[in-house]
């Protein structure tokens, strides 16, 4: 088992979907990543920043999941990052209604001493300079650095993004973003170009269409579980990343074959995340439910054709 | 091995993609279905109609693939169905430039005597009344009737479509069409509604995102092989249907597990179809190429997680 360091936002979200709307609830990339990774009973820690308005009970909840929160800086007189969004009827697109950076604006991440030797580092979606600062604080070279990012950083901080990509082993990115970053429409060609930017492994997230893992000419495809109802897609990508990095930390094996399993676990956990608003489903998820759904993933994808 | 009866258009296509354009070349749903199914060395026959302008060499080519063409009516003083389309840059959408129904307008399909006992019937995309007429000509109840259709028939001949669906075991349909037919956005719910219309098996084609097979609460997902280049998507859906029905005819086994394999073969063959313009790739495809690509499909989808 490897120690997992998670960097990302811990935030308030207010979400509106065709099924209803929420007040400010717990959100943030690192929150989803942490909750998802915690299903593997690993030693993980979050580096983030919140304001004095952030409830202690949320921190307690994370700690109860064996997530170290000593790297979450609390700015007593500051306000927690707040995002509000509204999903369209197809649930595949959304409008951002409010973004209040608040304490995130001057986030200077500090990795706790006891996490500077983490073997797996999961860099959630943040300014690439913040992601770089975390890599530089590691006293031992991590076995695997995974980076998640989004189109926003390609638009406003591309040089910094390209810099940090050189230090990264795995990038997780969605299909449109992969096309934007690479200038290639075909995802096969996009992955090739992104490999050349640094990451040996490229994971392309396609939402309801699953995820693709590329490395050195090898490809693996994990479908998303087709669901009767997607209640709230918020955090699905982060939950995927948490399942991916959490499984690799748990198994301490970064072979391509084991990464296939990690992608399946990511997809598996993401399928729960979308069943309820916010982090609700991820906070209450049993090992048995996860294993049962893994069985569904097997039935969904495994076939038996004899080759001559 | 079962006899396979194929009904559908045999046509001329003129295609424009970002990679180039063609003059009138061989096309039509039944052509693609037949070529794809013929890779299994089965006994198949096409029921269709062409004009006096249809070259004998095309019929010879189909016959050389062991496809019986005695059910292709030739209207000496008529013209062959002609379709022309132009693909957009993303290759996922296209504009129809020309549709000349010609002899298809008064198509009254005649199933040859020696195909009236076919165990597998593949009804390519055509007016649902034409599809129904073929079912009625069968002297023995087929083991499996597969129907492909499209949104056009939902718009102009919905009652006839609903009628023929009652007589059908499998429907193949794309995702947007499944949503239109069922009024459900979730494909899981769409498949449920479509089951209630008749077909025990629902195959939803998602283009570059693969295909889903649904039956009695069971689901199977076959990805499309991610390709560096999609040259011409024309006929991919029909090639999928030909691989699906051809494999079932070859193996003479319509269990859900074998249908999983059929979906994989459909996806496999479709991945070749798009590599060149029109039917060119399907006319020149070796068993070895198909088997090698099947190996790629295995690597792409198979994983090995031990469940506790």
In brief, what are we looking at here?
By secondary structure, chain A is of the alpha/beta class. In chain A, 37% of the residues lie in helices and 24% in strands.
Please tell me about this protein's structure.
The structure is a homodimer. Chain A has about 300 residues and is an alpha/beta fold. Chain A has a single domain, classed as Ribokinase (UDP-N-acetylmuramoyl-L-alanine:D-glutamate ligase, 3-Layer(aba) Sandwich). Helices cover about 35% and strands about 25% of the residues of chain A. Chain A is built from 11 helices and 14 strands. In chain A, the strands form 2 sheets. In chain A, strands 6-5-1-9-10-11-12-13-14 form a 9-stranded mixed β-sheet, sandwiched between helices. In chain A, a hairpin with a 5-residue loop joins strand 12 and strand 13. In chain A, helix 3 runs parallel beside helix 5. Chain A is globular and about 65 Å long. Chains A and B meet through helix 7, strand 14, helix 9 and helix 11 of A and helix 7, strand 14, helix 9 and helix 11 of B.
